[in-house]
Design goal:
InterPro entries: NAD(P)-bd_dom_sf, RCK_C, RCK_C_sf, RCK_N, Trk_Ktr_HKT_K-transport
Keywords: Ion transport, Transport
Strand content: 15-25%
Protein name: TrkA-N domain-containing protein
GO biological process, one term: potassium ion transport
GO molecular function, one term: monoatomic cation transmembrane transporter activity
Number of helices: 5
CATH topology of the largest domain: Rossmann fold
Shape: elongated
Order of helices and strands: EHEEHEHEEHEEEEEH
Helix content: 10-25%
Length: about 230
């Protein structure tokens, strides 16, 4: 795996990947950023990641993943485009520094997954305080899908329903149920419970359907006659 950008973000990612047994090469053109002693298990390259010669030296054609993690959106877009179009890297992940530029980070620029730190932080805050509202946590550029979360509220129509009995919207997959401190792999026989945090991969066009499906039951009509 190659990481373009050896700042705090790039080094942190490298450390996590190395702990998981991956081979990692860090590229940066700033001598002060090339701090080999901070991530000694990684390979390092002092060079401009936007240059073809650098990417040739990094043997990008053998990489499974390229992570454009610099603090400059222009650099991250160029690295992503070169990685995908010139070297056919299967998976390209790019950091979005300015949320205003997020619309550029798509498959046209070779980006498979765009990670916007400000947007992710706001989504996580929203997720922490929202019950019954669908929260988009992450957008996957390739395939036009998003990772979305909803905490199932009391009174939702699906409370007590088995996962396998739910007619989920098309292009939607329930991937995880978080129940208290437990992370559950959804089983068709699992019954949904109020307070469950449900994580889905869903097409953006299906999010409204998913929200409606998981919403509380509408109040019953009628009631006490006050006439």
């Amino acid at each position: 795996m190659v990481i373009a950008g050896a700042g705090a973000v790039g080094r942190s990612i490298a450390g996590e990947l190395l702990e998981n047994g991956h081979e990692v090469l860090l590229i940066d053109n700033a001598p002060e950023a090339v701090a080999v002693e901070r991530v000694p298990e990684a390979e390092w390259l002092l060079a401009d990641a936007c240059e073809i010669a650098t990417l040739d030296e990094a043997a990008l054609e053998r990489c499974q993943v390229v992570i454009a993690a610099s603090g400059d959106d222009k650099v991250n877009l160029v690295v992503s485009l070169l990685a995908k179009t010139e070297y056919g890297v299967p998976r390209v992940v790019a950091r979005v520094n300015n949320p205003k530029n997020e619309w550029l980070f798509n498959d046209a620029w070779g980006v498979d997954v765009a990670v916007s730190t400000p947007r992710l932080m706001s989504a996580l805050v929203e997720e922490a305080v929202s019950v019954g509202d669908l929260v988009r946590l992450l957008r996957f550029s390739q395939g036009e899908a998003s990772l979305v979360e909803l905490t199932l509220p009391q009174g939702a129509a699906l409370v007590g329903t088995r996962v396998g009995e739910v007619a989920w919207p098309q292009d939607t997959a329930l991937v995880t149920i978080i129940r208290g401190v437990k992370v559950l792999i959804p089983d068709p026989d699992d019954a949904l419970a109020a307070g469950d945090e449900l994580l889905f991969v869903a097409a953006p066009a299906r999010e409204a359907q998913l929200q409606a499906l998981l919403s509380p039951r509408p109040p019953k009509e009628g009631g006490k006659n006050t006439g």
